[in-house]
Design goal:
The complex is a heterodimer of chains A (466) and B (382). By secondary structure, chain A is an alpha+beta fold. Chain A has 11 helices and 17 strands. An 8-stranded mixed beta sheet of chain A has the order 7-6-5-8-3-2-9-10. In chain A, a hairpin with a 2-residue loop joins β15 and β16. Chain A is elongated.
């Protein structure tokens, strides 16, 4: 459970994560504010205070006890290891002020209690955690904004988030501006939650592929996997969304960048964007991508940001994946099987609702065959001089008599075949049962059924094959 | 009892799966049923791509029939089936092939024409090069279609391009044509037409005492040139290698028309030679549902191991090829083969040698006729 803080990025992500969970535990509508405040350059060094405040349940300090400070030169130059905490629960009469020194390994010496502040009888709960970082405000702001923009994908039930920036201007007056506001969803509902993730990912894709804003075509599939898990009803949920982005081939090829052969996994744990858990990483590699016509070239983990690289993605196609693992209640542990199941469900959903999308190599081949088969059948039907036969065929196909020509009949047959292929493998088992014969004969015995593979290229047998 | 029923004529009646010889209108109706069934499955509420179920031409679906009184045997196919399916990777292409040949056959029948397998091959090669790359594929697909529609290849409007020839003491007359004397057709003989209809309508007359089936064209030519039929009253017939259906059909007609003439086979002393003889004698699974139809009781005149021992010098023997051993294995495994034949195969395998009929020429070009005469006089055939 120990978490070693090795960078500023990791630090503020954890602070936000804890705040989100406190809000989730609260029954009321909560507000979560991340504020970056820059100070005058003391000794020529830029200094920014990051403060994360929330109106969730008060902190029990448990979550902070697992944080460890990693001895790292870069980190040491940016942060002194001190966290200031102010927290209160609804039942408390005062606000507790504390300082936490992560550099101190002795647990007794880590925590310093400061004088409490009275609440003057007002009932409220909340926590403010702040750290001072020696880093340029612009850099930090860009990072945090990017992080929070990913958070927009999941709508945290009953939580509103905002990012504020303030600072001492030259006149010494405080200025403040709001950068990002994230509206949470009003109630918790699994249906709404997956929809939010889908809408969120679509918005994210639109915003981040500005070049593709016209003529784009987003197709999405969603999947949810549940475990009834622990006895406390704290079931785990994994939601997955897969979006396929088809760019019209008319677009300039400059839009088709090399990186589009890749897919970044947007991974969320308990409503917070974070690095992909190993279990989910395994889940992703164990999916049979081939059955969706995809081939995974590599899975790269860059500092917790996981990139799937594809072998054979057509240049006009991009795939985006978001996974959200959470427990109905906090805290949680991710489950590999659930992540796999959810992603598979999302892929299947995408496939089912979008004809011709994510077809396996086998199905693609079958679609090629479908074209030839349709043409053959159409020619056969139209070469007949038996009008009754032709009419019967057309009525089965639903082709109007005035439209009867090889193209219309062929296209109709082809579409029907392809739609059956699109119904995918799930049905193939069903039709495997008993083969039907054109000309019935009682002599046919089921146990005689044998699968005879066609041996291609076998030389003509002069042998007497008995 | 089980063993008996498996090998008698009664078993044959019960289990024979055969191809009907039917008029074009009926074949067309069967194709139309196939198309309508496919479209129905495709357009139903629970749509599916239906598979094609065909009678299997796998050896395990073959059966042997032995006549109780005549001793004649032949092989035939029973009712096991296999499927060609679009959804199975290994059969998707053959599935399309069946439909393509069905389309061709349908059009041929509508136009009231007939085509040879060779013509069909080139047509398919031009139209669908992705599916047809060899004559063998076309031939097999035709057999698939025969096994699907259960009508003979000929009924599908497809003729075998016959290579066969016939010569000797036989008068043939096609309807409304002059009588042909096969003894005056020269060394290449009278070419056997692939049109089975025409062969069926031939009127035939003969004063021959024997029918001699010759494996190779070169030997046939030699015998025709030497006018062997002047010395031995006989009819010569050859398929120039592995027998096609028209040659088998004509030989079968000769046997029916002249039931008293024994058919004697002259083949190389190697497994392939015997396989050719056996195809005339018992039929071939490769011919699918028509396998049994044209079986004739051919007797094995030569070459046999005694001929090799007595007449062929060591230097005229060639080593067996791997392909020979493969054929030998399938012959040995066959339940229909009589023991005396199997002994010959064993002798071939044991010696590791093979001999061509031409090896007899070391005794002079005219020796072949003498050889035949001696064997016939001695009734030395199996």
């Amino acid at each position: 459970m120990e978490i070693e803080i090795s960078s500023v990025k990791m630090l503020y992500r954890h602070l936000i994560f804890f705040a989100v969970q406190r809000c989730r535990m609260s029954d009321d509508l909560c507000r979560l504010t991340v504020k970056l405040t820059s100070f005058s350059h003391r000794f020529g060094l830029p200094l920014v205070r990051i403060s994360v405040s929330d109106t969730g349940v008060g902190s029990k300090l448990e979550e902070y006890q697992y944080l460890k400070y990693r001895d790292d030169l870069v980190l040491a130059n940016q942060w002194d290891g001190m966290i200031s905490l102010a927290t209160t629960s609804v039942s408390d009469s005062e606000i507790h002020n504390l300082n936490l020194n992560l550099k101190e390994s002795n647990s007794a010496g880590r925590l310093t209690k400061l004088p409490s502040t009275t609440k003057n009888g007002v009932k409220f709960s909340g926590t403010e955690v702040s750290v001072s970082i020696s880093k340029s405000l612009d850099d930090l702001l860009a990072e945090v904004t990017c992080f929070l923009q990913k958070m927009i994908l999941v709508k945290i039930p009953k939580v509103v988030m905002e990012l504020l920036v303030g600072g001492d201007d030259l006149l010494g007056a405080q200025t403040e501006s709001r950068i990002v506001t994230i509206e949470g969803s009003s109630v918790y509902s699994p249906v709404e939650s997956i929809k939010c993730l889908e809408v969120g990912l679509k918005d994210y894709v639109r915003k981040h592929h500005t070049c593709l804003s016209i003529g784009e075509n987003l197709k999405g599939g969603t999947g949810v996997a549940n475990s009834s898990g622990s006895s406390h009803g704290n079931s785990q949920v994994v939601e997955a969304v897969v979006i396929i982005n088809e760019i019209s081939e008319l677009f300039p090829s400059s839009c088709m960048r090399e990186q589009d052969m890749r897919t970044e996994i947007l991974y969320f744990k308990d409503f917070v964007h974070c690095s992909v858990a190993q279990s989910s990483l395994d889940a992703l590699t164990s999916i049979n991508w081939k059955s969706y016509g995809l081939a995974l070239r590599s899975v790269a983990d860059h500092d917790g940001c996981v990139i799937l690289e594809w072998e054979n993605l057509p240049p006009h196609l991009h795939i985006h994946i978001a996974i959200h693992c959470y427990h109905r209640q906090y805290p949680s542990l991710p489950d590999r099987n659930l992540a796999r199941k959810a992603v598979k469900c999302a892929l299947d959903d995408l496939k089912e609702n979008n004809q011709g999308v994510l077809l396996s190599t086998r199905e693609l081949k079958m679609c090629d065959y479908a074209l030839d088969l349709a043409k053959t059948l159409a020619r056969l039907i139209l070469s007949s001089n038996d009008l009754n036969f032709q009419e019967e065929c057309c009525s089965l196909l639903g082709v109007q008599s005035q439209e009867v020509n090889p193209d219309s009949v062929g296209n109709c047959i082809r579409e029907k075949i392809i739609s059956v292929i699109g119904l995918n493998d799930r049905n193939s088992q069903k039709h495997k049962e008993a083969p039907s014969f054109l000309f019935e004969d009682d002599c046919f015995r089921k146990e005689d059924f044998m699968d005879e593979d066609y041996q291609e290229g076998e030389e003509a047998y002069i042998s007497w094959d008995m | 009892m089980g063993e008996l029923s498996r090998s008698t004529i009664f078993f044959f009646d019960q289990h024979l799966c055969y191809a009907d010889i039917i008029p074009p209108s009926q074949v067309r109706a069967r194709i139309e049923v196939a198309v309508l069934n496919f479209l129905k499955a495709l357009s139903s509420n629970d749509p599916s791509i239906s598979d094609l179920s065909l009678i299997s031409r796998n050896p395990s679906n073959s059966r042997v029939s032995r006549g109780l009184l005549t001793g004649d045997s032949w092989i035939f196919l029973s009712h096991s089936f296999c499927t060609r399916s679009l959804t199975r990777e290994n059969s998707a292409k053959s599935f399309i092939r069946v439909w393509k040949v069905m389309e061709m056959s349908y059009q041929i029948l509508v136009q009231e024409k007939r085509v040879t397998q060779r013509e069909l091959y080139y047509k398919l090669l031009c139209d669908s090069p992705d599916y047809f790359t060899s004559q063998l594929q076309v031939n097999r697909t035709i057999q698939d279609l025969v096994a699907l529609l259960r009508c003979s290849r000929y009924s599908l409007g497809i003729m075998a391009s016959s290579r066969g020839a016939i010569a000797g003491r036989l008068l043939l007359q096609e309807p409304n044509k002059e009588v042909v004397d096969c003894s005056t057709c020269g060394s290449s003989g009278y070419a056997i037409s692939g049109d089975l209809d025409l062969l069926e309508k031939l009127s035939m007359e003969t004063d021959a005492r024997y029918i001699i089936m010759v494996e190779k064209h070169a030997i046939f030519q030699r015998l025709a040139e030497d006018r062997v039929f002047n010395q031995i009253p006989c009819i010569l017939i050859t398929a120039k290698g592995f027998p096609d259906i028209a040659t088998r059909f004509l030989l079968h007609r000769l046997c029916r028309t002249f039931p008293n003439l024994p058919v004697l086979g002259l083949v190389d002393w190697n497994p392939a030679g015997l396989a050719i003889l056996c195809t005339f004698k018992f039929g071939s699974i490769g011919m699918g549902l028509e396998a049994y139809r044209y079986a004739c009781n051919v007797k094995w005149l030569g070459l046999r191991k005694d001929d090799i021992n007595q007449l062929v010098p060591e230097e005229c023997l060639a080593p067996l090829k791997p392909r020979d051993l493969q054929i030998a294995k399938s012959l040995m495994a066959s339940e229909i083969l009589q023991d005396s034949y199997k002994e010959e195969v064993e002798a071939m395998v044991q010696s590791g040698r093979r001999a061509e009929i031409e090896a007899l020429y070391c005794h002079g070009y005219d020796y072949l006729v003498k050889f035949l005469a001696t064997k016939i006089v001695q009734a030395s055939y199996l």
